[in-house]
Amino acid sequence: MISYLTKRLLAVIPIILFAIFLMFALIRLSPVDPAEAYLAAAHIHPTEEILAEKRQEFGLNESLIMQYVQTVKQIVQLDFGNSYVTNTPVWQEVVTRMPATIQLAVSSILLAVIVSVPLGFLSAVYKNSVIDHFSRFLAYLGASIPQFWLGYILIFVFAVQLDLFPVEGRGSWQHFVLPSITLSLALIAIYTRLLRASVLEELEKVYVTYGRTRGIKEKTIMVKHVLRIAISPMLTGLGMNLGKLLTGTIIVEQVFSWPGFGRFFIEAILNRDIPVIQGYVVLAACLFIVCNLIVDVLQLYMDPRISWKGRTES
């Protein structure tokens, strides 16, 4: 186990360096001059003298290699610079806004898992039944409705017409209901169909027939063996979607005026706030890597056919 985790953690280093390089290259290839972007955000008229001073301050006069090395050093120290708009450290802005995004992401994932696991499992066990047809309809609905449209519909019905939940902002548990449903419906559609297909595949395996012939209880076979193995593909999707949600649910945060990381990133793009954009790209890459590593470790415990030895040798 330690050997496997060590190899995975070592493999993370070149991925992060590549992400930093890609971010660095795209910003340098863009027509936006960081010095001009800073002066525009500060509402300062860009004269040649001020531009030269800011380019010197930002290290833009040095070679690209030295700029890249300096960027890597700063990122390792969690120093992404100061925001051009707020003039506060980017890391401080991230720490301030990240809890809102984490809360919304976790609540959406939990809601999706609570609904999709029993629904996908039962729709496979009772194939072509009423619950199976309902799960297909829900999956079709969740995959078809755009998130921004669903968000506005929920606001109109449950906030404006029925006055049950607040329209925007973050505070009490009522504020989580509408954005969580908006985010989780698409996830429910994916996870339900994925789990149903996986359970149906496992039910055709020899070990299920063998367990029944041995007289093992059907509940034990289904829950302890079939569900435990069938849920593995769902965990993989869970890791990808969790990383996506943690990097900011941009559309939903805009619709519900949620003060999260994604909305902050959109504002940074509009304002050409380059330090914030750099920080977002690097943190997004790290979050995706960490989430997938956690899911891989969980799969080793959920699926008994996967051994630590096989993973470390692969």
From TrEMBL:
It is found in: Cell membrane. It comes from the Bacteria. The chain crosses the membrane at residues 9-29, 102-125, 137-160, 172-191, 226-252, 280-301. It holds the Pfam family BPD_transp_1. Keywords: Cell membrane, Ion transport, Membrane, Nickel, Nickel transport, Transmembrane, Transmembrane helix, Transport. It is a multi-pass membrane protein. One of its GO terms (molecular function) is nickel cation transmembrane transporter activity. GO terms for cellular component: plasma membrane. Residues 98-299 form the ABC transmembrane type-1 domain. The complex is composed of two ATP-binding proteins (NikD and NikE), two transmembrane proteins (NikB and NikC) and a solute-binding protein (NikA). Belongs to the binding-protein-dependent transport system permease family. OppBC subfamily. This is Nickel import system permease protein NikB.
